[in-house]
Specification:
Layout: H1 3-12, H2 24-46, H3 58-69, H4 94-106, H5 108-115, H6 118-130, H7 135-149, H8 160-166, H9 170-181, H10 185-199, H11 207-218
Length: 220
């Protein structure tokens, strides 16, 4: 699949932007479409080994399975042309990658029910941190960090420190300081941690450092 095919695939998934809509009806419609597409993926997978001589039709069934995967999350991220590490900023499917992460950030329970993929989340965050950042991508990543620090911690959220360090600047720090001063206890905790690691780039973003931070804030 080439770049032109990728662009067509992204356009075909325009409905997925409803997954992050503030309109409950629009979001419900997108969720129904995602759920239906996932059912098609499961059915296509079940057909892979059906019949008395499954190998005779395996290639055609595998193509059908891959097409089904590409019509919903998370398969839509990996069913097209791949990108080299660090070059996600020029990937035609970048809008889908950002949408996938925004969905998880805004509506974590819906994401978990309909498209949970922790490995994909981690890989996307790491590659987004490592790539070049134009004005558009920088703004989207600042928004993501801002969203994530204001909710209870979820699996792989600590990876967003990589993003924060990559797009560090006045806009991000201003948002983090507002979150840290807010009445949201989660925001105070998470934003404080990110700010500390921005101020101390020599400190590794390890599980031990995170747990030490948690223990310290709980005893204050």
């Amino acid at each position: 699949m080439g770049i032109d095919d990728d662009h067509e695939w992204v356009e075909g998934l325009a409905w997925a932007h409803g997954l992050v809509s503030a309109d409950p009806a629009e979001r419900a419609a997108a969720l129904d479409r995602q759920a239906g597409a996932r059912m098609e993926v499961e059915a296509a997978f079940d057909r892979l080994n059906e019949g008395r001589f499954p190998r005779l039709r395996f290639r055609a069934r595998m193509r059908a399975y891959r097409r089904a995967c590409g019509r919903c999350f998370p398969g839509a991220l990996w069913s097209g042309s791949e990108y080299a590490h660090g070059e996600i900023s020029t990937w035609p499917r970048l809008p889908l990658a950002l949408l996938f992460l925004e969905w998880e950030a805004r509506y974590p329970q819906e994401w978990t029910e309909h498209a949970k993929a922790w490995g994909a989340k981690q890989a996307l965050i790491r590659d987004l941190a490592a790539t070049d950042h134009d004005q558009y991508l920088r703004a989207k990543l600042v928004d993501l960090v801002d969203l994530v620090v204001q909710r209870p911690y979820r699996c792989k959220d600590r990876e967003y420190v990589r993003v924060a360090r990559a797009v560090d600047g006045d806009e991000l720090r201003g948002r983090l300081h507002r979150a840290h001063r807010s009445g949201n206890s989660w925001a105070q905790l998470h934003a404080g941690y990110v700010l500390r690691l921005l101020d101390h780039p020599e400190v590794p973003n390890t599980r031990h450092v995170w747990r030490t931070w948690l223990a310290g804030t709980r005893t204050c």
